[in-house]
Fold:
Amino acid sequence: MDKNMYYRTVSVIFGALAIAHAARVYYGWEAQVGEYVIPVWFSWVAVVVAGYLAVRGWQLADRKKRR
Structure:
């Protein structure tokens, strides 16, 4: 797998993760690990971080393609 394909694949995964966390916030779904309930603010942070990583992955893939 070349770097462009890797960056695009990872970008799709992070994009899907960001969408899933945004859906959790929008619909008010609860997330629980064992007895610990994960707060909704965590999903806001996850949307920002995963979205950023998805965008940067696409940018890196495009930059490598232009060279």
User: Anything to note?
Assistant: Helices lie at 3-27, 40-66. Residues 3-66 form one domain. The longest helix spans residues 40-66.
